[in-house]
Amino acid sequence: MNKKTYHGPLVIKGKLVDAERIKENSNYLRGSISKDLENTLTGGFTGDNFSLIRFHGMYQQDDRDIRIERLEQKLDSRHAIMLRCRLPGGIITSKQWLAIDKFAKEKTLYGSIRLTNRQTFQFHGILKTHIKSAHQMLNEIGLDSLGTANDVNRNVLCSSNPMESVVHQEVYALAKKISQHLLPNTKAYAEIWLNQKKVATTDSEPILGSSYLPRKFKTSIVVPPNNEVDLHANDMSFIAITEKGSLTGFNLLVGGGLSIDHGNKNTYPRIASEFGYFPANKILNIAEAVVSIQRDWGNRTDRKNAKTKYTIERVGPDIFKKEIERRSGINLQPIRSYQLTTRGDRFGWTKGIDHKWNLTLFIENGRLLDYPDCLLKTGIAEIAKVHQGNFHLTANQNLIVAGIIESQKNNIENIARLHGFMKKITPQRENSMACVSFPTCPLAMAEAERILPTFVTSVEDIMTKYGIEDDYIILRITGCPNGCARALLSEIGLIGKAPGRYNLYIGGNRIGTRIPKMYKENISVKNILEILDNLISKWAKNRNKNEDFGDFTIRTGIVAPILDPIYDFWA
Ligand code: SRM
Ligand code: SF4
Question: What is the pTM of this model?
Fold first, then answer.
């Protein structure tokens, strides 16, 4: 590992990337989206609007399974919109669920609801003619999709079961406040999608600025010991600190992030830096200070170097920390002790502090769809019809039916069973995750969601062969190096390189505080499974008591530990 030096300028001068022009000239995110919406000659958005609609929570996509076929028929790609809702902390009521279920069934090409690993949901395949009704439906049920994509603070993650303790409840309330506080202030969303009249006041963006942030920005709040939100994937994280069961404050961590570019050594994953502790009632001041520093210091000349992790590595953590203190007027105290021990969801029944029941359901890939033999999406809708509590979406793409009254417990369990939930699942499957990838993701290089189920079956077979089927390895497959499935925080990570080919990473840990190292590059699934068979057999035979797979691969020298990803990741 080299010795670190931080001597970069606070602000990078140079030619701004085109995304900056688009934002600055957008009239606070309006662009000409409204006009484009009326153009029925194309199913897509044109020019700058293609990018601007992302600030409103939408991505233009086309089905990549039929792209070539349409090209051969000299047809345009069939454009459709993916819409991502804003749901800080992941809570949605039964009534809201029934409305989104109906919309997915009636107005989307795929008919599915996709739970994401940032505790919200996406509709895939909304045709242009249905976009407005999507936003209006969300508005009617008290939801929106503002700021779930592009260069703003994204959906705020938070430990997913507020009914677990009073601290969880407080933290959930703060997640919503942070989301609201950092939201774009522009009225563009209401004007374009909800037909609100433009008011004669001038727009302003006191926190985000008229050019918004240099890049996407992610926030999480975690109540230890479960790191289910994967805090090190976030630009800004708050770790709840308690005394005698009461929330006193938070440890602030800044600069986590996972995306890389294959072969581009200027890109790297990064574990967030620990900056210090502060009292709980100052969380909005701290959040605003961090975001505003990244707004002012983040690199606007190179989007591959624009995230907070790169800003910190350029200016140095000490200078960044001092600036947080200066802007917020709060002196950060030394980090308070905390311990992370797990990352998974607690499946099955648990009782909340309100004495109501919670049922955590495993949803493979977070994809709720009615399959011929298993009506998963209908199942959740049937539960929503009788359930008087809420649903909590988890950062592992699962769903908690929360706040079930005693008299409904059996009924809800029966509905869940009838629709294919609550089958016996191995710990391995419970701890495996994939990103969306094909057919909707335009950036996908290899399959992820669609190969996960069979890939996990193969790994389960290996685990059974070596008599360790009750154990698990955190396994994640991501279709390209953007890393949406957080493979760079897993014990076994596959990162798509080309159709059927992946880079294999091993050596992360169970709690998500260590980046794994590339073990083999550009190999086939068959090859990966052969390698895993060999490594898992060694782990089964030679591990120390309770030693996890990732720790074993480090201790036995199968891969070198990544102590500082910036130097060690590509070494
Ligand atoms: Fe992601 C882009 C899906 C979590 C890093 N991500 C995309 C897009 C929108 C593709 C695009 O830009 O056109 C994908 C849409 C696919 C589709 O068809 O739905 C996509 N990302 C997802 C989701 C749905 C994966 C999932 O299976 O759950 C997650 C949605 C989260 C949400 O609700 O907001 C999702 N993406 C992540 C995460 C994990 C996290 O946030 O905890 C990461 C890595 C963490 C990080 O940011 O470092 C992640 N996504 C990216 C990146 C790389 C960003 C970067 O730093 O360079 C991109 C590409 C980009 O932004 O240019 C991207
Ligand atoms: Fe798409 Fe790549 Fe993200 Fe997977 S990791 S959803 S392929 S951008």
Answer: 0.97
